[in-house]
Please model this.
Amino acid sequence: MIDVEHLSKSFGKNLVLDDISEHIQEGEKVVIIGPSGSGKSTFLRCLNLLEEPSAGTITFDGAVITGPKVDIDAVRRQMGMVFQHFNLFPNMTIRKNITLAPVRTKLMSQAEADETATTLLRRVGLEEKAGAYPAQLSGGQKQRIAIVRALAMKPKLMLFDEPTSALDPEMVGEVLEVMKELAQEGMTMVVVTHEMGFAREVGTRVLFMDGGHILEQNEPHAFFAHPREARTREFLSKVL
Amino acid sequence: MDLAQTYELWRGMMRDGVSLEWWQTFFVRFYQAFLEADRWQSYLEGVGITLLTTAIALAIGVALGVVVAMLRTAHDQQRPGRPRNPVLGAANALCKVYVTVIRGTPMMVQILIMGLVIFSSSRNFTAVGALTLGINSGAYVAEIIRGGLMSLDSGQMEAGRSLGLNYFDTMRFIVIPQAFKAILPSLGNEFIVLLKDTSMISIIGGQELTFFARNIVTRTYDAMMPLLGAAAIYLALVLIFTWLQGKLERRLRQSDRR
Amino acid sequence: MKLKKVLGLALSAALSLSLLASCAGGSAETPAPESTTPVEPAPSASAPAETGGYGDFTSGLIEPGQLIMVTNASFPPYEMTDDNNNVIGIDPEIAQAIADKLGLELVIDNIDFDAALISVQENRADVMLAGLTYNADRDLVMDFTDPYATGVQVIIVRGGDTTIAGTNDDLQLVDADGNVLEDIQIGVQRGTTGEMYCQDAHGVDHVTSLDNGSVAVQALLNGQVDCVVIDNGPAQEYVAATSGLEILDGAYVVEDYCAAVDEGNEVLLQAVNTALNELIADGTVQAIMDKYITAE
Model:
C-alpha cells in the first residue's frame, strides 16, 4: 500500500531520517518503537507529508505522492492521523469536529456526516458527548474522539503518533481498546508508540528505529523474544 | 422661571460684572455651550459622523488587516524545502512595506498627505479622513491578526490539513475563529484608539465631534465647556463599546466552559 | 430629555472639577521656560514710574512685576515666530508698550489658540492678544479692551476660468460664461471669525475648516476648495509667494481686534485699557502697525 524509497529528511544540518526504504502492505499493523530523537515521529509525519521529505519518494496506492503536482489534500483524505496532543478543534462541538472535514471535502452531505458521527460515537461509547466542547472532555475521551474524527473520512490507512503518551495512565486503556477494535476490523495501521504490550498483542510487525535508521524489524513475538541488535536489547531492557 | 429665562437673567448679570455664585456661572457657561441656539444638535451631528467615520475606518482596517495578515502568514508558513511561491513573495514584500511605512509615520502626517497630496482632488474631507484612518488601522490590525495566527498551536493547522482540508478551509474554520477569540481584546483596543483618532481628521476639514466642539469654542471663546463635553461624549462611547466587547468575549468563551 | 440634561451636567461637572483642580495646581507655578519668551524692557520706552494713573492694578496680576501675555503665534503679521522661535509681530510690540507704561516686565506664552483662551480664563496668563474680536457670547468668559486695530478678511481665489461672484452672504461660483456652479466649497482657517460667518451664511457643509492658513491655501491650489476666506495680512503673503492666486477686490469682513483679560479682572482691564488708549492717542500703535503692514 505504501512504498518508501530512499527517504531522507533533515532539519537544517540535522539529518533526522537517513535513506530509509520500507514497504507497508494493506492490512498490516506496523508498530514503530525507538528512543526519543530516533526519527520515528518524523518518519510517520513524512508518510502524509506533514513533513516534506528532503529526498526519496513515497508511493501510496500506486501513485507517487512526493512529486510536485500531487493534490496533497486528496492524498491526506485517505490517510487518517491521530496526534499525541489530540488536536481537537476547541471552538467546535464534538459533532462539528467530526463532520467538518467530510462535509467540506464533499465526501458526504451534512446529514450523512451527522449520521456517521452518531454511529462512530456510539461505537466508542461517547454518543452523549456530541454536543459538548473538547474542553469538557477528559484526555482519554478526547483521544477517542480524535480517532473517530479521522475515521469519519473513511481512510484506507490510519497513522498514530504516540496516541497515549499525553494521557494519564488510567486513560491509556480506553484508547488502546478502540485501537485494538480497529485493528480487528482489518484497518491498515502505522503506530508510533511506547506501549510494548500493544505492539506485542496487536502489531503484525515491529520496527525499531534509532539515529534515523530502521535498525531492526520482525514479527512481534520473535522481535521481543530474540532481539538481534545490541542497541535494541539495550532499549528493550530499559522499557520492559 | 424656566431654564432659558434663568440663563438670560444670569447671563446679563455676568456681562454687567455682577459676581455670581460659582454654580450660577457654571450654569450659564454650560447653557451657552450646549443648550443655546440648540447647540447640542451639532454635538449630536458630530457624534454621528464620528461613529460613521469609525465604522468605515474599521471596515477598511479589518479588511486590509485580514488580507495582509493572511498573505504574510501564508508566505511565512510555506512548506520548507519546496520552491517558494514568487507571487506570495512579492505580496509579502509589499505588505511589509505597507506595515512599515504606516507604523513608522505619525497619523497626523498621514492625514495631511492623504488629504492634500494623494487625494488632492477630493472635496469630501471626512471620507478621505475615514479612508486614511482605515489604511492606518489596517497596518496595526494586520499585526494583531498575524500575532494571533502565529500564536495558535501549529497542531491545529496540522490536524485540519491531515483531515484533507485545504489551507483556506483550515484557516477559515479552524485557525481564524480561534485566533479571533484570542485577539479580540487587542482588536477592541485598536477600535477604541480608532474611535478617538477620528478627532484628528478635523485638521484637513473633516467634520466630526471635535470639529463641532471647537466650532463652539470659536463662537464663545469658552474652550472648557465644549472640550469637556466632547471628552465626556468620547468617554461614554468608549464605555459603551467596552461593555459590548465584554459581552462578545463572554459569548465566544462558551466553548471554554467545563 | 430632562434626565439627559441632568446627566450631562453631572458628567461635565465631574470632569471640570478634575480639570479645575489641575489648573489650580498649575497656575501657582512660574511658566515653563521652553514655552516662554522673556522680553527685555526697552530702555527707550516712556517713563515707567507713573503707575498712579492706571489705578492699583497689582491685585489683578498673577506674578508681581510681570505682565504675562498669551498668544498663538500663527497669525502673521499680528503674531508669528522668527527663526529663533521668538514671538514677534504687532501684538507683542503693543503688549511691550503697555507693559512699559505699567512698569512691568513682559512675558510671552506662545501656545495653541484654545489653550490660550483657557490660560487667561484660568489665571495662568494676565492678558491675551491674538487678533481677538468681541461678541456677546465671548463677553461672558473674558473682559475685552477697546479695539486697537482693524482686521480685514479677504477672499483668495485661483485665477482662471472659474471665479467667485457676489460677496459675503451670497458667494457664488461662476464659470467663464457667467453660469452659476452649484456646490461651492469655501476654505477657512479654523478658529477664525471668517469660519464662523461662512458657516452661518452658507451652512457647515459648504465650509471646509483647515488647520492653518497654509493648509487652506494648499487645498485651494488643489481645487479642493473654491476660495479661501482669510485675514488680509497672510493673504497678501500667500498670494505674493504663490503664482496663480489672486485676492478679490473688497473685504469679506472688517472687524476690530481687542485685547482680553479674565472675566471680572476689572483692575487689570482698567489699567491695560488706559495704557492702550494712550498708545493709540500718541500714535505708538499706528507706528507699530505701519512697521508690519506696508502700504499697498
